Amino acid sequence: MKLIFALFTGLVFGAGIALSGMMNPAKVFNFFDVAGTWDPSLAFVMGGAVIITFIGYRLVWRRDAPFFDGRFQIPTPNVIDARLIGGSAIFGIGWGIAGFCPGAAIPAVGTGRWEVALFLVAVTAGFYVRRLIAAILSTAKTA
Amino acid sequence: METLFTPFASFGGGLLIGIGAVLLMLGLGRILGATGIMSGLVFAENRDEFAWRAAMVVGMILAPSLIFLVTGTMPELSVPVSPAMIVIGGVIVGFGASLGSGCTSGHGVCGLSRLSVRSMVAVPTFMLTAAITVYLIRHIFGA
Prior knowledge:
The complex is a heterodimer.
Chain A: H1 2-20, H2 25-32, H3 41-60, H4 82-98, H5 102-108, H6 114-142
Chain B: H1 7-28, H2 34-42, H3 47-71, H4 83-99, H5 104-113, H6 117-140
Helix pairs in contact in B: 2-3, 5-6
């Protein structure tokens, strides 16, 4: 049941991504290209998503626990550090180069376009690079 | 390349994205972050952690086909950049999003909705660097 629920959740999220234009890099570039062929559509995506999630989360949190787990697992850190700012800044640069972000690219796999698969393989490589550097740094610290 | 301004489709898509995020909180008690889902698949801690993420990804990938069944057309996806840019951008996205603990869905939709201080720093940071990147590539280097 939990897995069917998760699949359905993915389907709803993915349909939203597909409908919204987020999975279209041409639209992503134009959203940021205020000085050129500007297309502000994607601001409406964030607006719609945040309105629903803001209200929905508060309704859901009136429950003691989610349906399929003993507790809500919500990130607790509230520290603004260099990792957060640097990581976010780097992420934005990549998004501006490729035009895809992970949440848009995963549903976009379903369109069968090879560019999407190539992007996700590269993202996975990026995960490994981050882990590798973290491992090297921690070894250097203990040495 | 111009793209059509689509406020209604984008807002509607945003609402669905929000419903997806709320459903995941209601069912599994988790934040819907694509970076976390992807890296949780690649570096899964156990079978259960792998299984729900895999089910969600399957649902997400089925979404464009659902859109096709309902509307008769696949979601629009045009990639105006070279494969090299997709790879470079993808690696940077994977590195940055995992370092900064989130991307457009995790920090953007879920983080802002739960008024996370970290996300309120992360989102303007990656929006700004994405916009600067697009400006540099399109208007300074003239690609």
